């Protein structure tokens, strides 16, 4: 199992950040290439589409890695879609998320998800000025919490946050809500050409893979002591670390159960990834 190109994407759920490259935006890195800054998700989706088209045209195997969860804790997909299929949840979200460079409806969609369950929750973190019924600002205001709040991967990755938190320090839930619809559109645009890891066999020319650069945060910091934009450094470093792995080791990293929660590539192999940056 070999890959001709490995690309890492640092995602963002925020609004258009303007033409000047900055942190907390979308950064894309590929081994041996300068990082690409995308000021909004529409531009990032266009860049990804072109990259996939180029790989398919030249018959190259392409791995696209994204730093947000591909699944939710066990049972959530069935509660929403009636199926234990995380990709059905991707489709559900793509049909409901409205996205524009300066605004999106992620908080309202999260509130609609909360209304499916009794009480208040499990999503929290209303980051808007207006009040949104059924979406509390604080996690402590919830009366409905998922029976297992973290995915197994998050329980094993020190510092990983829950997917239910949508705003404030460390929040990752908004990235999931705004990222999965984009991946679903890519799957639809290239039917039969894209596989989603670990839910599907990697027998197609393009793979979508979940990563978390913070797995090797210390190694990235050592390799880039003068970098002022952490996101820019981590996409390049993780892409380089993954590309430097021998085929057998990368195959070991990819060899995980096809669990509905998904997984983080490289979890449990942090030493091998960090060593590649030494």
Features:
37% helix, Nucleotidyltransferase, domain 5, two-stranded antiparallel sheet, six-stranded mixed beta sheet, alpha/beta, 8 strands, 11% strand, single chain, 10 helices, Molybdopterin guanine dinucleotide synthesis, 278 residues, 2 domains
Secondary structure: elements and pairs:
Elements: E1 5-10, E2 26-30, E3 36-38, H1 41-57, E4 62-66, H2 76-81, H3 86-96, E5 99-100, E6 103-104, H4 106-114, H5 152-156, H6 173-189, E7 194-196, E8 206-210, H7 217-223, H8 230-243, H9 247-254, H10 270-277
Parallel strand pairs: 1-4, 4-8, 7-8
Antiparallel strand pairs: 1-2, 2-3, 5-6
Helix pairs in contact: 3-6, 7-8, 8-10
Protein name: Molybdopterin guanine dinucleotide synthesis
Query: Widest sheet: strand order?
Result: 3-2-1-4-8-7
The backbone outline, from C-alpha atoms, is: globular
- Main sheet specs: 6 strands, mixed
- What is the succession of H and E elements? EEEHEHHEEHHHEEHHHH
Class by helix and strand content? Answer: alpha/beta
CATH topology of the largest domain: Nucleotidyltransferase, domain 5
Stretches where pLDDT is under 50 for at least 5 consecutive residues are none
Total domains:
2
Number of helices: 10
The CATH class assignment of the largest domain is Alpha Beta
Strand tally is 8
Radius of gyration: 18 Å
Strand content: 5-15%
Q: Tell me the span between the first and last alpha carbons.
A: 25 Å
Q: Based on the structure given, which CATH architecture of the largest domain is correct?
A: 2-Layer Sandwich
**Can you give the helix content as a percent range?**
25-40%
Mean pLDDT: 96
Protein name: Molybdopterin guanine dinucleotide synthesis
């Amino acid at each position: 199992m070999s890959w001709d190109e490995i690309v890492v994407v640092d995602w963002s759920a925020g609004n258009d950040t303007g033409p000047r490259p900055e942190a907390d935006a979308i950064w894309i890195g590929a081994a041996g290439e300068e990082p690409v800054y995308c000021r909004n998700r529409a531009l990032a989706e266009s860049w990804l589409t072109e990259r996939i088209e180029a790989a398919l045209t030249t018959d190259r195997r392409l791995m696209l890695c994204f730093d947000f969860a591909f699944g939710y804790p066990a049972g959530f997909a069935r509660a929403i879609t009636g199926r234990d299929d995380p990709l059905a949840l991707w489709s559900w979200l793509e049909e409901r998320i409205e996205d524009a460079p300066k605004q999106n409806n992620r908080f309202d969609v999260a509130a609609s998800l909360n209304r499916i369950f009794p009480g208040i929750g499990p999503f929290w973190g209303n980051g808007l000025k207006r009040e949104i019924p059924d979406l509390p600002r604080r996690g402590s205001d919830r009366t409905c919490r998922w029976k297992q709040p973290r995915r197994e991967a998050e329980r094993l990755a020190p510092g990983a946050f829950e997917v239910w938190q949508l705003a404030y320090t460390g929040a990752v839930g908004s990235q999931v809500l705004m990222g999965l619809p984009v991946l679903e559109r890519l799957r639809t645009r290239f039917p039969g050409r894209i596989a989603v890891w670990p839910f599907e066999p990697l027998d197609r020319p393009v793979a979508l893979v979940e990563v978390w650069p913070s797995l090797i945060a210390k190694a990235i910091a050592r390799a880039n002591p003068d970098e002022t934009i952490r996101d820019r450094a981590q996409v390049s470093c993780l892409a380089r670390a993954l590309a430097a792995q021998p085929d057998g080791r990368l195959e070991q990293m990819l060899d995980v159960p096809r669990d509905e929660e998904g997984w983080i590539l490289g979890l449990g192999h942090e030493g091998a990834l960090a060593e590649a940056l030494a």
